[in-house]
C-alpha cells in the first residue's frame, strides 16, 4: 500500500489506497492493454490507458479506459487525478 500511495500527488484529487481496497483487489489480475502519453509539459502530463481486469474467482473480465493527469512533486511524477474515458 505504501508503494501505491507514494504514486499519489499530495495535493491531488485521488484518494489514498486503503487496506480494504487492497483486500478487494487481491484476487484481480490487471493487464495493461495500452498506455499513451497524450500531453506533456515540464510539470504536467496526461496519460491514456486501457486495462483489462480479470477476476478468476468470479469468472469475470472487463476492460476500462482511464485518463490519468500527472503533476510533478519535488521532481517526481505523481497521479494528480483520474477519470474514466467515456469516449473510448
Note the topology.
Elements (H helix, E strand, L loop, with lengths): L1 H4 L13 H7 L3 E12 L3 E12 L4 E14 L2 E9 L4
Structural description of this entry:
The chain has helices spanning 2-5, 19-25; strands at residues 29-40, 44-55, 60-73, 76-84. The chain is mostly beta strands. The model has no long low-confidence stretch (mean pLDDT 93).
Structure characteristics:
88 residues, 4 strands, 2 helices, single chain, mainly beta, 4-stranded antiparallel β-sheet
The 3D shape can be described as globular
How many helical stretches?
2
Order of helices and strands: HHEEEE
Distance between the termini: 29 Å
Summary, kept brief:
This protein has two helices and four strands; from the N terminus they run H-H-E-E-E-E. By secondary structure, the protein is mainly beta.
Amino acid at each position: 500500500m505504501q508503494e501505491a500511495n507514494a504514486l499519489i500527488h499530495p495535493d491531488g484529487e485521488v484518494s489514498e489506497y486503503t487496506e480494504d481496497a487492497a483486500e478487494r483487489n487481491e484476487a484481480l489480475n490487471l493487464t495493461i492493454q495500452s498506455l499513451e502519453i497524450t500531453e506533456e509539459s515540464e510539470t504536467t502530463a496526461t496519460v491514456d490507458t486501457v486495462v483489462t481486469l480479470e477476476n478468476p474467482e468470479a469468472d469475470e473480465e472487463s476492460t476500462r479506459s482511464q485518463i490519468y493527469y500527472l503533476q510533478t512533486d519535488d521532481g517526481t511524477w505523481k497521479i494528480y487525478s483520474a477519470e474514466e474515458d467515456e469516449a473510448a
